[in-house]
Amino acid sequence: MSFFHTPLYFILIILIILVHIVMIIILSDYLRHHKNGWWSAMAKEDSSQTLEQRLKERLEEKESEIAMLKETLAAKEKAISDMQFRSGLMEGIFRSSVDAIFITDVDGGFIDVNDSALSLFGYSNREDIMSWSAIEAYKDPSDRECFRKVIEKSGSVKEYPLQLRRADRTVMDCTVTATVWRKHDMTIGGYSGIIRDITEQKKLVKELAESEEKFRTIANIAQDAIIMIDSHGKVIYWNNAAENIFGYSADYISGMVLHHVLAPERYNEKYASGFSLFKQTGKGSAVGKTLELEANRKDGVRIPIELSLSAIKRDDGWYAVGIVRDITDRKISERIVSEEYARRDQWFNENIFGIYETTLDGKILNVNNAFVSMLGYGSPDEIKNISAFELYFREKDRNDYLDKLVKKGHLPSILLNLKKKDGTVFPTNCMSYLTEGVIRGFISPSTIKQNSFIIPICSFCRMAREPGTDNSWVNIETYIVKYKHEIYAHPDFDFSHSICPACASKHYPGIHLR
Fold first, then answer.
1. Between 8 and 352, where is the model more confident?
2. Considering only CA atoms, which of 95, 70, 90 is closest in space to residue 18?
3. What is the mean pLDDT of the chain?
4. Which among 398, 394, 413 has a CA at the least distance from the CA of 470?
5. Whole-angstrom Cα distance, residue 195 to residue 160?
6. How are strands ordered across the β-sheet holding 354-359?
7. In the chain, is it the N or the C terminus that has fewer CB atoms within a 10 Å radius of its CB?
8. Average pLDDT of span 150-168
């Protein structure tokens, strides 16, 4: 607190003004009682002037001096009033401020604190904190000496970081903005300033930094490109995957308009209208959706991409964050799968064997053209409208067939009598498999007698199934040599159309033979 702000200074000014007024009054009385003596003196000095004129001039001078003194007195009174107003204003700010304000001496003793300082340090009344030394508030006592050296050297500090303790010894992160105050002899009397608790703020900043670091770590190890553009369409974030996919480094592409670098020309018109709307509202036809587009790589190759776009509102406008995936491999796989399905459909529909899929309860799921033709129906849709149970010539045939199939899970080759649309019997060689409640199989016309020796042959690889086994297959030459006696014993033997496990897995991946 300086001398010019003390009551003693104001009293001294008033005494000086009073002394001037008394001197003026004394001088006026003197002039009034010694008029004749002055007259004689003035007559000697200048005979051309009358005593009355000289006296009038001197009186006018004194009156002017008195007027000036009155103006000075009024100005001093106004200054005192202004200082009192400012003093009251500062006192009001001091007491009502939400920031903790303090005044201490050089030894750390508190001279004054406001209510916010009491709350900050955990005290309920001013007397308690006055008996407490500011030095005790430092977590590390050496910090106080550093603070003192800095503030005394520069005269002030701004947002000086410190760790302080409350009355309950809990530690808080603070910033101190303070200045030195001087005594009458201009030596430093102490320090005054503002303390702010930034513990929560520092915690939030740390959490934000950790969150940002986590994001950057995840973004940089992500396989998808993560890109952010500002409200002008310029790149402000570009992760490692984006560099790997498109060939541009983050340093090179940062600040460039993303659309101009990556987008084919055919997207220009939609971009112009769409981005204008996005800048104003954060909305657009691509926002919140996943789209399949094309993009240009640095090497000039155009690649298919999948783009997911979202909007972020910031102070200077709407920003866009895009996750971009290179779907070149997926598109190739889809084309391969599509071509494979097309080949399977062609093979299914053009196969000379009758192929079918039904449920255990008799619902027909799918049949090919050969199956429809063998049983005399007009189209696959026509045969799907009836129950599979109606296709058996006898109910016993159906029951025996289903019992064996459910028990074994597959029937490599059996003789089965089916019923054509006109009601006539249609003997078949039937091979079937049961997987997940669905029966899949093949039929072919059969002329084999019931007691004949049957050699099941795979329709694809021509392997033969060994008799008395479920799924042991050998090449036909080995089969004939190995089972020649059985063949000679049944001169009426016949071959049946079948399929081995390897070919079934190749052509029908959904069928798993046991």
1. 352
2. 70
3. 82
4. 413
5. 9
6. 364-367, 354-359, 438-445, 425-435, 410-419
7. C
8. 92
Name, in order, each residue with C-beta under 8 angstroms of 327's C-beta and a sequence gap of 6 or more.
292, 304, 305, 306
pLDDT at 39: 45
Average pLDDT over residues 47-70: 72
- For 313, residues 6+ apart whose C-beta sits below 8 A from its C-beta are 282, 319
Which structure tokens are listed for 416? Answer: 């089965």
Distances (CA, A) of 281 to 172, 201, 290, 297, 314: 42, 32, 19, 30, 12
Helix (H, G, I), strand (E, B) or coil at 432: strand
Rounded Cα distance, 458 and 467, in Å: 14
Phi, psi of 216 (to 5 degrees): -65, -40
Residue 444 has pLDDT above 50, yes or no: yes
Band of pLDDT at residue 215, cut at 50, 70 and 90:
confident
Q: What is the pLDDT of residue 38?
A: 46
Write b or e for each residue in 313-344: b if 16 or more Cβ atoms lie within 10 A of its Cβ, otherwise e: eeeeebbbebbbbbbeeeeeeeeeeeeeeeee
d(CA 377, CA 370): 10
- Per the CB < 8 A criterion, the answer to whether 219 and 39 are in contact is no
- Helices 51-96 + 35-45 axis angle, to 10: 110
What helix, strand, coil percent values describe the chain, rounded to 5?
Answer: 50, 30, 25
Report, as an integer, the average pLDDT of 409-426. Answer: 88
Q: Tell me the mean pLDDT in the region 114-140.
A: 85
pLDDT tier for residue 447 given thresholds of 50, 70 and 90: low
Residue 237 above 70 pLDDT?
Answer: yes
> CA 459 to CA 441: how far, in whole Å?
13
**Contact (Cβ atoms closer than 8 angstroms) between residue 356 and residue 345:** no
Residues in a beta bridge with 490: none
